[in-house]
Design brief:
This protein is of the alpha+beta class. 26% of the residues lie in helices and 33% in strands. The longest helix is centred in the first third of the chain and has 14 residues.
Length: 245
């Protein structure tokens, strides 16, 4: 470990924070790896365990480190960030993070609309929907299990290559997404979801449900995403125009 400088105005714990950040950036401490214990770090830096604990708490607050009960402290996996302030698909969010997106097509079929589909997509009682299921990867790591349902006029999707960007296919057919709504909650992995996302059954996941509309206000699709929260985050930007009630 690096020596800390004692004759400076920079507190010791902040020097340790910067040193550990540097080691993580240089991948001397790799993502998901366990870092030394507080006692080991205290000896390596020549400081008290209280100073080490303060540095680690700051890194945990910044999501750079994560504590796992009875196991230790680990370097967080680098998460992809998607802005909720605009329509940004998974492929684009990966590109902006300097990563490569990949899609595994699971299934696509024309099926009878469920009552929830009729309500969300403003359909008639006996309408059918295009149901598409895909698994989304970032740098070959499974991140999102995605389901989208489209009204039957989008049946042309069944003839498209669904291993790429759905937004790109829609744009090619002149469909522009103009608005939408998203609801975010928490769920726990089923056996199938755990298998597909390479996690443990009952692990906590992000559950995202959304509806996208075209310029005329017609629903284009109703979507559901089961998201591995260890790999992916949603970001919301606010400004002074936001009113709190």
């Amino acid at each position: 470990m690096s020596d800390v400088v004692r004759d400076t105005v920079v507190p010791l714990y902040l020097q340790i924070v910067q040193d550990l950040k540097g080691k993580i950036d240089r991948e001397e401490l790799k993502a998901n790896s366990r870092i030394p214990t507080e006692a080991e770090l205290s000896k390596a830096y020549g400081v008290s365990r209280i100073t080490i604990r303060k540095a680690l708490e700051l890194l945990v607050d910044e999501d750079i480190l994560v504590r796992k009960q009875r196991i230790g402290t680990f370097v967080s996996s680098k998460k992809i960030s998607r802005s909720l302030n605009s329509f940004m698909g998974f492929t684009k969010s990966c590109e902006l993070s300097g990563k490569k997106a990949r899609t595994q097509f699971l299934s696509a079929a024309l099926v009878k609309a469920l009552p929830s589909d009729i309500q969300r997509l403003k359909l008639e009682e006996d309408d059918k929907v295009i149901h598409i299921r895909r698994l989304r990867f970032c740098d070959d790591v499974p991140v999102i299990l995605e389901e989208n349902k489209f009204p039957k006029q989008y049946a042309y999707l069944l003839a498209e290559d669904l291993n790429g960007s759905l937004h790109g296919i829609l744009n090619k057919h002149g469909v522009v997404l103009a608005s939408g709504s998203k609801t975010i909650g928490v769920c726990h992995a089923t056996r199938e979801e755990a298998r597909l996302l390479n996690i443990k059954e009952n692990d906590a996941l992000i559950l995202s449900k959304d509806i996208a509309y075209d310029a005329e206000g017609h629903p284009v699709y109703a979507g559901k995403e089961i998201v591995n929260a260890d790999r992916y985050v949603y970001k919301i930007l606010t400004n002074n125009a936001v009113k709190y009630i």
